[in-house]
Amino acid sequence: MKDATTYANAIAATENAVALEARSRRVARRPFYSPTAAETAEWKKALFPVHQEMESTGSARSTIEAVLRRAVRIRSLRSEAWTPC
Q1: How far, in Å, CA of 33 to CA of 14, rounded?
Q2: Please, how many CA atoms are within 13 Å of residue 7, restricted to the half-sphere of its CB?
Q3: HEC profile for 65-79?
Q4: CA 44 to CA 38: how far, in whole Å?
């Protein structure tokens, strides 16, 4: 039962992420832009010094780590191609 629940939750999370992105694109009043891998790498490189500076403030470190974990989770959900059985 635990495996079935984990599997069903993974499918639901993937479908929710895909549906949310599709809805966002559909109702957006402005063009929806997805950066390329090179642009994302450049953005990360530019923000790294800011992250290091903000980590020194104490509580900002946990916030930055939480945001980065969430970004990784969203990226993994987008890359998973779910196909029905």
Answers
A1: 20
A2: 7
A3: HHHHHHHHHHHHHHH
A4: 10
SS3 (DSSP) at 80: coil
Global pTM? 0.42
Phi, psi of 26 (to 5 degrees): -70, -40
Residues in contact with 78: Cβ distance below 8 Å, sequence separation at least 6, in sequence order: 17, 18, 21
pLDDT in tens, the chain (85 residues): 888 888 888 888 888 888 887 887 777 677 767 788 899 889 889 988 887 887 777 767 778 778 878 877 776 766 554 444 4
Please report, as a single letter, which amino acid is at residue 81: A
